[in-house]
Design a protein that fits this description.
- By secondary structure, the chain is an all-alpha fold.
- The chain folds into two domains: about 30 residues; about 35 residues.
- Helix content is about 65%, strand content about 0%.
- It contains two helices and no strands.
Length: about 90
């Protein structure tokens, strides 16, 4: 039995379009000014961020380690899946 690839592709594109549209509506709703009920806008306090000391090598090392672990895991999974399909064939 042959699958209807056009139907599957159109469903994927439709789901993607709905997801993008929902993100656009959510971001535009958050961009509206807030009011306290009296008509005057609510003021938010200003947050002062302290100056950075420069590049944080510790955070970069953690990020690189996570990326390396994810890549290694993906390669390992692909290798195991490939070897299992050869045994079954």
């Amino acid at each position: 039995m042959r699958r209807n690839h056009f139907g599957i592709r159109s469903r994927i594109w439709l789901a993607l379009a709905v997801a993008i549209a929902s993100l656009a509506f959510a971001s535009s709703a958050l961009a509206m000014p807030m009011s306290d009920g009296t008509g005057s806008p609510v003021t938010t306090p200003t947050v002062v961020v302290p100056a950075s000391d420069g590049f944080n090598w510790g955070d970069a090392l953690v990020g690189a380690g996570v990326a390396l672990a994810a890549a290694s895991g993906g390669i390992g999974i692909a290798y195991v899946a490939r070897s299992r399909t050869r045994l079954l064939a």
